[in-house]
Amino acid sequence: MPVAEYCCTVLDCPDPEALARFYAGVLGGEVKEGNGEEWYNLNAPGGHRISFQRVPDHRPPEWPRADRNSQQAHLDLLVTDIEAAQAEVLALGATPLDLDDDGGERDFRVYADPAGHPFCLCRA
Question: How many Å apart are CA 62 and CA 66, to the nearest integer?
Fold first, then answer.
């Protein structure tokens, strides 16, 4: 018997509404205010939820460092066309971190969202 039921992933950021809208542009779904301007939820397709919590002095992780301020956590997002998905996330405001996929041999590319959290586009 499990101890708990999964609820959501929460990302700290300086602007929860803006980051929720970035991920809505990437994943689809509906953005909802959760607790004033301090918390927003993205109800993504498939019943998944990502929440965004305001942290005024947020420091983004320093990918790929592990010695200090490591990436802490990241999202893996499956895509069927990595080139098209890359163009779309960049247009939405993502920053490329590691696009060297060894000519398609490596199944992922790494980006940062507008608040600096790493995420990967992974070939489905």
Answer: 8
**Secondary structure element (H or E) that encloses residue 41, with its range:** strand 39-44
Q: How far apart are CA 33 and CA 12, in angstroms?
A: 15
Closest by CA to 72, choosing from 116, 28, 15, is 116
CA-based nearest residue to 14, from 50, 51, 58, 52: 58
**For the sheet containing 118-123, what is the strand order?**
75-79, 118-123, 108-112, 95-98
pLDDT tens track for 83-117: 999 999 999 999 999 998 888 788 999 999 999 99
Burial class of residue 83 in the structure, from the number of CB atoms within 10 Å of its CB (0-12 exposed, 13-18 middle, 19+ buried): exposed
Rounded to whole angstroms, the Cα distance separating 19 from 63 reads 18
